[in-house]
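Aim 2, interim progress: modelling of the thymidine-5'-triphosphate-bound target.
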Amino acid sequence: MEDDHITSHFTRRDLSLLAQSSPKSALRVITLIDYDCFYAQCESVRLGISSDVPLGVQQWEAIIALNYPARANGLARGISVEEARVKCPNLILQHVPTWREGCASWAYRPVSTIMPGTDKAALGPYRLESRKGLELIKSTLPHSPPQKIEKASVDEMYLDLSAQVHSILLQRYPALLDVESSSKDEMLPLPRTSVLNWHADAVFGADAEDDHFDWDDIALNIGSEIVDNIRREIFKHMRYTCSAGIARNKMLAKLASGYNKPNHQTVILRRGTREFLSTHKFTKIRGLGGLLGTQISEKFNTKMVSELLAIPLSQMKEEMGLEVGAWVFNVIRGEEQSEVNPRMHVQSMLSAKTFVPKIVSIDQAAKWLRIFVADLLGRLDELGSENHRISPTIITLNHHIEGRFGPTRSKQTSVPSSTLITEKMLFNLALGLLTQIVAEEKSWPCRSISLRIAGFQSAPKSNTLISSYFMTNDQFTSLGLSKTSKEDSRKQQTVESLPRVY
Ligand code: TTP
Ligand code: CA
Ligand code: CA
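Predicted structure of the complex, ligand included:
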């Protein structure tokens, strides 16, 4: 046969690294799935509004999410409500739900009644949808090999599909099993496949003439099929569309997910990487969006990947430092090996409110403490699982007389581990802390108060003897949580008006 003398670029070692989902595997399959206009879709599905009607999600006077029909009318995130109404008179605007001073739970309220003085944005419904989507994805994937899913934000997740793709590869190409006995360094036979159904809307590198598909292409092809199926399931069960990128690492997968929005998926093959990256400004690359990206564009006087490719490694290292220089040199060539990390990294949670006008009494503050507690407990529930409840061991109250950038007084106490965590119990602890602060010096009028819980532990739900069932450090880590240390607590999750939480 014609291709008998041609071998794959990959070895049996590459195949076994794929089975282990090793970041070093040259055959890796990573995807990033991102919901299209997430909050806007949550609202249009909840309200039963057709997806072709322009819709935006409002928080105070800002619009924080817009669906694609609204974007087609020239609207972009950040536009004011007033301006949006002028540009797109048939725009439907839905305000995010709010917590309200004196009310026990968040609710969707008439927009005319929502005031920053009395309300606090509640993003629970979006987090809940996000969580449902994650559970659905888990249910579409086999349990073995173990699933590797990283929730990267409220509406996106990375999946390392390598191990699953490996099992499918062996089922579909049983000849690969025959190389089981050969040396790890021996080149694999080339796949005898010249036509592939890509299950994708764009594939970079698929049309290279005279080129044979190799195992990395086949692996990404299988990945694309899995992702296509996941997206169909999400639409079928939740009516949400999402976009996805499928590639050999997180950086390419993320960039590819945004290539063809909405409701499309894009595959980047090795030989298509350069073509794909050259169409982008390097500031779009994960890790190059911030200060580092600015430094590079100033140093080399360009924003385009294509122009940076001309800079030799030695010069890149000289200008950017050895490590950063090497990283940049590789990443603009599409080489990157960061892991898909299923840990949630939640070390603490904060609920806060800035008061306009300032509040003047402990009674007023108490109403907000109730809201903080309800907010935090709702989020704790989301962190737990069917069988385990997560509880904090430390609660801290911060009092900012002039706002969060002014002088701050804090009090902290431990949360008893032997009793059930209830709203009442946390509220009493918080109120006790505030009472201590107020007793020490003049505390009113006050601009802002926040409540933080930390030191999370996990306990089985059905058991009343909670304290004897606390997990060991290792068990805890495997759950995706880590014990909080002083060091850790600096990297906290903060949530007030910014909806960007885990
Ligand atoms: P994104 O994924 O950045 O945006 P999107 O899903 O609305 O639109 P796209 O189709 O382009 O992916 O953010 C997800 C949600 O997070 C978004 O629906 C609203 C919220 N969000 C904010 O509230 N403020 C922000 O600045 C950003 C970027 C997002
Ligand atoms: Ca999105
Ligand atoms: Ca996103």
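Residues 34-39, 64-65, 154-155, 261-262, 499 surround thymidine-5'-triphosphate (ligand 1) (CB under 6 Å). Residues 463-502 have pLDDT under 50 and may be disordered.
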